[in-house]
């Protein structure tokens, strides 16, 4: 750490962030005074291997670019260490500086981080510098690095990962199109080292967009709903990415589709349904993850016939979480006959987990026609000590009291109070607030 509390640059020669022994404050002073000649002279005198150096200043007098006529890596590395020493002590990077950051500097940062495994301190220092990047120009430079076939795969992956930082900082949904287009191009192109390396970079770009949309809900004055202007350009690109045969790529794309809360593109919904139908009967860990992500994505899609068919197919998937997600999505279609069929299907299982799903469906979607079943379900729930039964029990009490069956709910409650285990304290406390007419207790001598 520097004396001012900022992290030092561990990539420098001598640990002070310069590699040449000069104080970073000297360069900050020269540059803030817009003394370009003085900065050039200081750089030139510091290393005989530098023929000349150019320092550009913004209107605030902050260095923007440093270049050298000598292409030797060691020489340029020492100049870049001067650049880092100037930037690192700054508390806040000015936006105009970030938007115009040298592409050469950006490439050097990413190459350096990808050339070898970084220590914990180096990794923290690397992200401390890059986490302030924002703006369309910076994203353009990153995508140019990502698309450059001459770059090593690790450097391209680091650049793709940094795109996520830029997107989250910029909060500009318009930049998403460029990132997804790059991901589509990379996922389709072949690579000399095989498709995995190229797909890994493309996958990181999808992750960058997903993290941006997921961060929307945490911003002030934002909701989980996106406007049509924001989601419209994303929908066709999601459909293009869904054609990738790699299971993990499909999973990440489905997760991206799920972040587009409230989208109403029927073409995308049918594309998601096609992926779900193709994998519904497959087994294995990858298939289970993809199927669950597909069910979650379809749950927020418009209920087209293809979506309904895919959800019905996922109801019989191998993974339990997938079946539950698909069942709940089908119950939300507002089809009483289908809901009653699903409840009956889950209620006959020997598994307590399956019966809990059935009771939840009944409590969530039940009507006045289902009161007998609701009473039986409440009796079963009050005998269990499962952690999720409080929520199911509350919904069953609400269903019975709402439909004029409070006396039947009271009877089951009294039976439970007479048993040794009694009623769970959390549920008892809720009943006292939500349904005070059911709070009469059985005398202790009758227990």
Give an overview in words.
- This protein has 447 residues and is mainly α.
- Among the domains are: 1-94 and 102-121, no CATH class; 335-447.
- The protein has 23 helices and 2 strands.
- The chain has helices at 24-32, 36-46, 73-87, 95-99, 103-114, 120-130, 136-147, 153-170, 176-188, 195-216, 228-231, 235-241, 247-259, 266-279, 285-298, 305-314, 320-331, 336-347, 352-365, 371-383, 389-402, 406-418, 425-434; strands at 53-57, 63-68.
- It has a two-stranded antiparallel sheet.
- Strand 1 and strand 2 form a beta hairpin.
- Residues 1-40, 42-100, 220-225 and 442-447 have low confidence and may be disordered.
Topology:
Layout: H1 24-32, H2 36-46, E1 53-57, E2 63-68, H3 73-87, H4 95-99, H5 103-114, H6 120-130, H7 136-147, H8 153-170, H9 176-188, H10 195-216, H11 228-231, H12 235-241, H13 247-259, H14 266-279, H15 285-298, H16 305-314, H17 320-331, H18 336-347, H19 352-365, H20 371-383, H21 389-402, H22 406-418, H23 425-434
Antiparallel strand pairs: 1-2
Helix pairs in contact: 5-8, 7-8, 7-9, 8-10, 9-10, 9-12, 10-13, 12-14, 13-15, 14-15, 14-16, 15-17, 16-17, 18-19, 19-20, 19-21, 20-21, 20-22, 21-22, 21-23
Summarize the structure.
With about 450 residues, the protein is mostly helical.
Give the tags.
447 residues, disordered C terminus, mainly alpha, two-stranded antiparallel ribbon, disordered N terminus, 23 helices, 62% helix
């Amino acid at each position: 750490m520097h004396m001012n509390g900022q992290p030092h640059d561990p990539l420098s020669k001598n640990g002070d962030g310069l590699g040449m022994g000069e104080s970073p404050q000297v360069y900050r002073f020269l540059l803030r005074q817009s003394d370009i000649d003085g900065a050039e002279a200081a750089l030139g005198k510091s290393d005989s291997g530098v023929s000349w150096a150019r320092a550009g200043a913004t209107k605030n007098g902050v260095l923007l670019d440093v270049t050298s006529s000598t292409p030797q890596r060691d020489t340029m590395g020492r100049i870049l260490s001067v650049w880092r020493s100037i930037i690192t002590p700054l508390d806040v990077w000015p936006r105009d500086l970030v938007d115009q950051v040298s592409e050469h500097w950006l490439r050097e940062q990413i190459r350096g981080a990808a050339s070898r495994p970084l220590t914990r301190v180096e990794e923290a220092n690397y992200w401390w510098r890059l986490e302030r990047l924002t703006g369309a120009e910076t994203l353009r430079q990153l995508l140019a690095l990502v698309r450059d076939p001459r770059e090593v795969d690790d450097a391209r992956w680091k650049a793709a990962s940094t795109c996520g930082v830029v997107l989250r900082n910029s909060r500009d949904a318009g930049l998403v199109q460029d990132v997804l287009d790059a991901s589509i191009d990379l996922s389709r192109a072949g690579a000399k080292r095989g498709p995995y390396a190229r797909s890994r970079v493309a996958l990181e770009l999808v992750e960058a967009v997903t993290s941006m949309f997921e961060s929307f809900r945490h911003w002030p004055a934002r909701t989980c709903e996106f406007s049509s202007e924001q989601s419209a350009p994303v929908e066709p690109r999601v459909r293009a990415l869904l054609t990738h045969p790699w299971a993990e790529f499909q999973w990440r794309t489905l997760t991206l589709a799920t972040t587009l809360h409230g989208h109403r593109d029927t073409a995308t919904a049918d594309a998601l349904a096609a992926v779900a139908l193709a994998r519904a009967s497959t087994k294995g860990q990858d298939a289970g993850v993809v199927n669950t992500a597909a069910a979650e994505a379809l749950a927020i899609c418009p209920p087209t016939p293809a979506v309904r068919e895919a959800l019905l197919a996922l109801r019989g998937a191998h993974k339990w979480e997938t079946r539950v997600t698909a069942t709940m999505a089908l119950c939300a279609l507002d089809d009483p006959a289908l809901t009653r069929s699903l409840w009956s299907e889950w209620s006959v299982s020997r598994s307590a987990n399956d019966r809990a799903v059935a009771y939840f469906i009944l409590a969530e979607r039940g009507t006045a026609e289902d009161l007998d079943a609701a009473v039986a379900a409440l009796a079963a729930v009050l005998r269990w000590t499962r952690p999720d039964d409080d929520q199911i029990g509350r919904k069953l009490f609400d269903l019975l009291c709402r439909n004029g069956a409070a006396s039947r709910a009271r009877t089951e409650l009294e039976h439970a109070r007479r048993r040794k285990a009694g009623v769970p304290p959390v549920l008892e406390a809720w009943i006292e607030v939500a349904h005070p007419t059911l709070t009469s207790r059985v005398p202790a001598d009758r227990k």
